[in-house]
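Task card 7
Instruction: Convert sequence to structure tokens.
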Amino acid sequence: MKELFNQLKTNVDQAELYHYESVQHEVTFQNGKLTELEGTIQSGYSLRIIKDNTLGFAYTKTLTNPALFLESALNSLKAGTRTNLYFPENKNSKKLRNYDPGIENITNNQVVDECRRIIGIFKEKLDAKIDIRILYGTEKIQIMNSQGTELTDEFSSYLVLCEVVFPNTAGGLYYLRRAKNYTPVPDRDLNDLIEMYKKGLNEIKIPNGKMKVLFLPTSLYVLLWRLQSGTAGNNIYHKKSPLVDKIGEKIFSEKLTIYDDPLNEAYPFARCFDDEGVSTNRLMIVEKGVLKNFYYDLFYADKMGVKSTGCGYKGAAWGGEFAALKPVPALEHLIIEPGEKSLKELIRLMDRGIIVAGVLGAHSGNIPNGDFSIGIEPCLYVENGEIIGRAKNTMIAGNIYNVMKNVVEVENQLHPTFMAGKAFPAILFDEIMVVSA
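Output:
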């Protein structure tokens, strides 16, 4: 990488070289049977250059031909992407505990045995389709820029995703667990899932109308996706967000405090710096319902005349070659502050309502504006504080800036989500229109 930088000095005003590599293993069981053992290795380099206040970008899997790599970046300047940004000088040598060397000792046999143990616990009490995916491995990033920044970080991760599918459907209840090394799933967690599943076996018709709606942590991303879009620097710059002039105003219930915390070592992928080499810090987005901050990468911070908030990350909703992606504003470590009630207590607060255990069409609606229209699968129905069955063909729609003002209570525990680094509690809302065919 340093040899390439020596070539860059005479060709551009600024440069940033980014390297990403990962080694991942996946074990998959479908309907209780082993179907896949897979290992993947990904590696790539991206180069951003600035010349005459114009930004260029190139990507390659290897550095076997650095001259061609640089030529590709220089050619990209023809797109005319103007900027005044400066790549950061970051000498921060702080390291977080985000890598557990024990990850290297995990074997597929060990993981297969864990899957079979989990399936055995389910099968003792249920006659159901059980799917499990366990993914584990390591990731490493390196960032070097012309300001003298040289940063390296390494991560280990272990993910368990279980789904117990309801009869004659494609949907079920999820259990998700994240760690930095192999950790057996506690029996009590599986038993809690079994208890909820059994209560949802009875298919029922439910009334239409406004009622309480409990979002489980694995389904809350539907609402948080819209908040992240509404507070993103790119949407603020392009005035696509209804929050453009709302800093300091109350937008949600006072029971909601939402912040980004990259330095939280309790979860995998904690970060001291983002994918642009900018130091990270805890960033308050909503405090007791009041909008506190937007978030920016270097590019949109420059456009808005502010500083980057350390939220420039490579990422895409549908995946891809990681190093090939350009940094964008992103909240990769979003946390919702927990409340005071357990999940069971939240359910007991429901005189009549539904539990959103899974969603269909999460992308439907004007996302930057906060609109959503989703199918719920599975949808559990609650009366007088008890789950009494499961409803099909149920939908809810609304706008988060209305819905998230009507919070009944927030769960007292954080749970990992489908998005690495993020953790949410369950949240009980009121006065949401539910339509069921």
